[in-house]
Write a structure and sequence with these properties.
Elements (H helix, E strand, L loop, with lengths): L4 E6 L5 E5 L5 E4 L6 E2 L10 E5 L5 E5 L6 E3 L2 E2 L3 E4 L4 E4 L2 E7 L29 H8 L4 E10 L5 E10 L8 H11 L2 H16 L8 E4 L8 H13 L5 E6 L6 H14 L2 E7 L6 H6 L4 E4 L1 H4 L7 H16 L3 E5 L4 H10 L3 E3 L7 E2 L4
Parallel strand pairs: 3-4, 13-14, 14-15, 15-16, 16-17, 17-18, 18-19
Antiparallel strand pairs: 1-2, 1-11, 3-5, 5-6, 6-9, 7-8, 7-10, 10-11, 12-13, 12-19, 12-20
Helix pairs in contact: 2-3
Length: 364
């Protein structure tokens, strides 16, 4: 059975609309004689044509439009082949190529309005959304573990669990993946998927070591997150887990004090992550001291090149952390000269390329 293609758009109120591609060629523009008439003045009267390519795929051809046509936000010259879930813009009007739904739209004629220069294309759809949603279900999830070492002896004392993707159409970098998650409002789901993979696939290979696991600020104080930790402790009582709380979640002392108490009750330690990336949150550090404080690499990277004032500030923060009974950890250390200054400042743990790069799960 031949596949039925259609175009999907998102209205101003967030509702999705669909337009069947009932036949080929299929013309799109502003004039009433098009197969799909779009009420946008930055479309040309006859903007694009969709035709069947000799390969059987659909080909998009720009009809010398004023404002251009874009596929996955890249302007095309002439024509190009389309795939399912491709994001297409005609001028600034955004659609996504889909299969097997219907609808139709016709509107009156109007003159073309030239797009203002520098106007960004809309981004209501996310490239590779289907693959990303599959990732959240565990398909293509991967990970790595990075050593955390004793600052004095360089002996490995713990590992941090890191999430990755193993899919040819998705970025490997967790930063890029969380950008995708943010566009879909699925940051918590991605954080959970990474943590589940790390505990299921990596933790058994690193028995005897404490494992640092990341969280997303949106989930830090949720009941679902805490319940998952309770369940994990019941299933894996031997697991020495350290939960990393991002600096941006360290904003309310009362909630942190309560959370720290709940962690203590179930035998889970915690760390403040990326300390110093924003505000230092010294009040919260004092009210709810963490077992570990991970200094953001922005504070310690190239510390050997920093002036005396910055070194004094970082050194005073390390002393404060020690006075509160927490263990200071320097992140992002890449050079021995950086590590030496960190030791002199009182850092007890070091993490970075100098002492150990992330190790893919298959190499552990």
């Amino acid at each position: 059975m031949e596949r039925q293609w259609f175009l999907e758009s998102v209205a101003a109120d967030g509702s999705h609309m669909t337009y069947n591609i009932t036949h080929l060629p299929f013309c799109i523009g502003r004039d009433a004689d098009n197969d799909l008439v779009v009420a946008s003045r930055d479309l040309s009267r006859h903007h694009v044509a969709l035709t069947r390519d000799i390969s059987g795929r659909i080909r998009l051809t720009d009809l010398n439009s004023t404002n251009g046509s874009f596929v996955n936000r890249q302007r095309i010259e002439g024509s190009c082949l389309l795939d399912e879930n491709d994001i297409v813009h005609f001028g600034t009007t955004e659609f996504r190529m889909r299969v097997n739904l219907g609808g139709h739209l016709r509107i009156d004629d109007m003159r073309t309005m030239l797009m203002p220069q520098g106007l960004e294309l809309s981004a209501r759809f996310v490239r590779n959304e289907a693959e990303f949603l599959a990732l959240l279900e565990g398909h293509g999830v991967s990970g790595a573990a990075q050593p955390i070492v004793d600052a004095t002896t360089n002996r490995i004392v713990a590992y941090e669990l890191l999430g990755r993707a193993n899919h040819p159409l998705l970025p490997i970098s967790p930063i890029r993946l969380f950008e995708l998650a943010s566009a879909l409002d699925r940051e918590i789901d991605l954080s959970v998927a990474f943590r589940k993979f790390g505990i299921a696939a990596i933790a058994p290979r690193l028995q005897g070591f404490p494992l640092f696991a990341n969280t997303h600020p949106k989930e830090t104080f949720s009941e679902e997150f805490f319940d998952s930790l309770v369940s994990l402790r019941e299933q894996r009582p031997e697991l020495d887990l350290v939960i990393e709380i991002h600096e941006t979640a360290v904003t309310e002392s009362a909630r942190l004090v309560k959370l720290a108490g709940r962690f203590r009750d179930i035998g889970v330690r915690f760390a403040y992550d990326d300390f110093g990336a924003g505000q230092a949150r010294l009040s919260e550090l004092g009210d709810a001291p963490a077992h570990f404080v991970k200094f953001d690499m922005g504070l310690v990277h190239d510390i050997h090149l920093a002036g005396a004032r910055k070194r004094r500030v970082v050194g005073d923060l390390v002393k404060l952390v020690l006075d509160l009974g927490s263990v200071p950890l320097a992140e992002g250390i890449e050079q021995e000269v950086e590590a030496q200054i960190c030791r002199e400042m009182g850092f007890q743990l070091i993490q970075g390329f100098l002492t150990g790069r992330p190790i893919p799960v298959e190499n552990l």
